[in-house]
Design brief:
Strands 2-3-1-4-5 form a 5-stranded parallel β-sheet, with helices on both faces. It has a single domain, classed as P-loop containing nucleotide triphosphate hydrolases (Rossmann fold, 3-Layer(aba) Sandwich). It has 10 helices and 5 strands. The two termini are 29 Å apart. By secondary structure, it is of the alpha/beta class. Helix 1 runs parallel beside helix 10 and helix 7 packs across helix 9.
Length: 216
């Protein structure tokens, strides 16, 4: 795969992608605290990305924002939800992620994490494939963690249980997408079970160990 011309500019970024409910944020937080890295969280940038949307350039995001809660989580199939979310995150929000990272790329290493950091988008930006890892939760792990967290978006619908099942099914389909895309490119992907999710930070630290001495 051809390298993106911005790869050299972003060679101080460590990428933690993967599915929801896989321990990505915990891993990024630990690394940032332990090695004095700056952090970038995909989820926390969502409000800012919504503010920056332009209807003509961001049709997925514009469509999603116009939906009711039932249209988002009850009335669509999990397959439709997964396809729409992958399109929204990869085609519309990921370019904003790159802009964000370049803007904060003055000095020092950055750890970027989030479910929207898909392998097919990150791979062309890697000068060293060891600078990225994808944590993918099993379907059982996603269900368990989602249930423990309690999902406010599903409670805001007319059928919370159906919305919950749709959300879990969507997340599972997206996890499968991440695994396929990472494996197809020979990138590191780690399966996360609910019982070992607390070990995610150690897994990520071990993976990045050969690079940390250079970046910090």
């Amino acid at each position: 795969m051809a390298k993106d011309s911005r790869a050299d500019t972003l060679q101080n970024v460590l990428w933690i992608g993967g599915s929801v409910c896989a321990g990505k944020t915990s891993a990024a937080t630990m690394l940032a605290d332990r090695y004095s890295l700056r952090r970038y969280h995909f989820d926390r940038q969502e409000p800012l990305h919504i503010e920056r949307r332009v209807t003509e350039r961001h049709p997925y995001l514009t469509e999603f924002m116009a939906m009711t809660m039932d249209q988002r989580w009850v009335l669509r199939s999990p397959e439709e939800m997964a396809q729409h979310t992958i399109g929204l995150w990869s085609e519309e929000r990921f370019p904003m992620v790159i802009d964000d990272l370049i803007a904060m790329n003055s000095e020092g290493a950055i750890v970027a994490e989030g479910a929207g950091l898909f392998p097919e988008k990150v791979a062309p930006l890697l000068t060293d494939r060891r600078a990225a890892i994808w944590l993918v939760a099993t379907a059982a792990c996603i269900r368990r963690i989602r249930r423990v967290r309690g999902e406010g978006v599903t409670r805001s619908t007319s059928d919370p249980e159906r919305a919950f099942e749709n959300l879990v099914a969507r997340d599972t389909l997206m996890a499968q997408h991440v695994r396929r895309e990472a494996e197809a490119r020979g990138l590191t992907v780690v399966e996360i079970e609910a019982e070992v999710i607390t070990g995610a930070p150690a897994i990520v630290e071990s993976h990045f160990a050969p690079l940390l001495h250079r970046l910090v």
